[in-house]
């Protein structure tokens, strides 16, 4: 079992889920769930960006440079969507990083029918970068097609900073997950009410 399998997948978009592979960003001890290239390749299969057989082949690469590129993309994606989720302008340098990685990814892709009446970028082969190419494409797709007004940052006070698409009807979702940060917030509210009654 991979460590990232214990991490909730709640972003609603591959780019946001990728950014969320660092847990507890606002704490003193954030946890990185993708410390190696093999973990990156396995995670890409875990969320359906590559199939399992491809991930196994990719994971055999010793690709520290590719991992550094992917993690740099991850930080840029986080910075861009964290800013958007807080109603701030996206950092120019982070946007440029996402654009550059998107250009590299699409240069290596081919356009092919997606089976639903449209075309999509498809990736083949065993280039180690294939593990992050679809993430760059997904991030730009979300940036250019939205819905950007539904991007939120987890409201947990404990430093979660998880990113997600709020697909609730009334746009009232505040937490990355109700079972995690949502429960923690509820417990804190109840504790505060009890203290205030005494």
From TrEMBL:
- Pfam families (UniProt xref): ABATE, zf-CGNR
Domain Zinc finger CGNR: where?
150-194
**Protein name as catalogued:** ABATE domain-containing protein
């Amino acid at each position: 079992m991979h460590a990232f399998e214990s991490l909730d997948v709640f972003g609603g978009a591959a780019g946001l889920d990728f950014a969320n592979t660092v847990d507890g960003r606002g704490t003193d001890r954030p946890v990185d769930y993708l410390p190696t290239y093999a973990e990156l390749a396995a995670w890409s299969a875990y969320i359906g960006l590559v199939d399992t057989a491809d991930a196994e082949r990719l994971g055999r690469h010793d690709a520290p440079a590719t991992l550094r590129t992917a993690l740099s993309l991850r930080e840029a994606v986080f910075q861009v969507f964290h800013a958007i989720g807080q109603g701030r302008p996206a950092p120019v340098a982070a946007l440029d990083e996402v654009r550059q990685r998107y250009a590299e990814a699409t240069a290596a892709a081919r356009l092919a029918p997606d089976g639903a009446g449209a075309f999509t970028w498809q990736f083949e082969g065993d280039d180690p970068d294939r593990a992050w190419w679809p993430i760059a494409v997904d991030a730009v797709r979300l940036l250019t097609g939205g819905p950007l007004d539904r991007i939120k940052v987890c409201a947990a006070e404990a430093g979660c900073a998880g990113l997600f698409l709020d697909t609730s009807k009334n746009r009232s979702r505040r937490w990355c997950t109700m079972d995690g940060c949502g429960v923690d917030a509820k417990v804190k509210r109840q504790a505060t009410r009890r203290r205030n009654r005494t």
